[in-house]
Amino acid sequence: MKSPEIITGRQALERLLRGNQRFARGVSRHPRHDPDRRKSLDRSQEPFAAILACADSRVPPEVIFDQGLGDIFAARVAGNILNDQVLGSLEYAACHLDVPLIMVLAHTNCGAVKAVADGTELQGHIASLAPAIRPAVERARGMEGDLTDNAAREVARMTAGQLAASEPLLAPLAREGRLTITAAFYHLDSGRVELLS
Ligand SMILES: [Zn+2]
Fold first, then answer.
1. What is the CATH number of the domain that holds 83?
2. Alpha-carbon distance 83 to 137, whole Å?
3. Where does the pLDDT of residue 5 fall: very low under 50, low under 70, confident under 90, or very high at 90 and above?
4. 142-175 residue pLDDT tens
5. Entry pTM
6. Separation of CA 58 and ligand 1 centre (Å)
7. Which phi and psi angles does 102 have, rounded to 5°?
8. Domain presence at residue 2
9. I need a surface site. Which of 3, 64, 103, 192 has the fewest CB within 10 A?
């Protein structure tokens, strides 16, 4: 169940960041993993945040934000890009589960972004990831620092922007201040999440 104090996107974000600080410091509490919690969620869910994260095995949202069952509505796809099915999933979280926050979470050393940045020939359906990533890579060229990481940050920013402008469901919620949409960047080495917007 949602904690009573969770009402705004800002508060949801603070809760995530507090959990991430615990995780990064190695003092995770692993809250709400127990059988009672599991049973209490049998018929309903009230997550306090939705996260669009990369499918990468090193970026599980519940772990890096030290949250429990029923806390985070997670949509995961390589490169944390948007497609219709991911957008529909996030619309469901915002409109039917009333999450006040959607976070788009990119990360360092993202294989999907690196493949596009390197111009690697992508086989099969892996190639379907590239069109959404390529504009971010182009934007990141010429920036100081690591191209892959800069491009991954741009993917998160661009995806968050697409969500905020998405009609007919998410844009009105964002305009009315009922939905916070934020981009963030996870550092695989330190375990810390950096806010981008
Ligand atoms: Zn990735």
1. 3.40.1050.10
2. 18
3. low
4. 999 999 999 999 999 999 999 999 999 999 999 9
5. 0.96
6. 9
7. -120, 125
8. no
9. 3
